[in-house]
Write a structure and sequence with these properties.
This protein is mostly helical. 63% of the residues lie in helices and 0% in strands. It is built from three helices and no strands. The chain has helices spanning 25-46, 51-83, 92-101. The radius of gyration is 17 Å and the shape is elongated. The protein starts with 24 loop residues before the first helix and ends with a helix.
Length: 103
């Protein structure tokens, strides 16, 4: 998986931004829930459950993971905007690439 960071320094390239686990706690909770859902999907497949039920659950897991990703990007943006309220130092190309990677 590609490594992304928002350059919110406005200066030289920076290493990927580290997020405070407390700041992304809702996203982390969502990912843990998705992990449980994924385990349930695996059990459904092993039990030979109907395809439609399995696909419905896979879609739910995928949606939960995507939403967690968007929440993490949003938290990164908030951190950058606290550092630079004008937002001029945000690397919009990297930001676009992060959003598109979740599609």
């Amino acid at each position: 998986m590609a490594e992304f960071s928002l350059d919110c320094s406005g200066a030289e390239p920076i290493p990927p931004m580290e997020l405070d686990p407390q700041d992304v706690k809702p996203a982390l909770t969502r990912l843990k829930r998705a992990n449980g859902q994924l385990s349930a999907v695996i059990r459904m497949i092993e039990e030979g459950r109907p395809c439609e039920e399995i696909i419905t659950q896979i879609a739910a897991v995928s949606s939960a993971i995507d939403r967690a990703g968007y929440a993490i990007i949003a938290q990164s943006m908030q951190s950058c905007l606290r550092a630079d309220p004008s937002g001029e130092s945000l690397d919009t190309k990297k930001l676009e690439k992060m959003f598109l990677s979740l599609r």
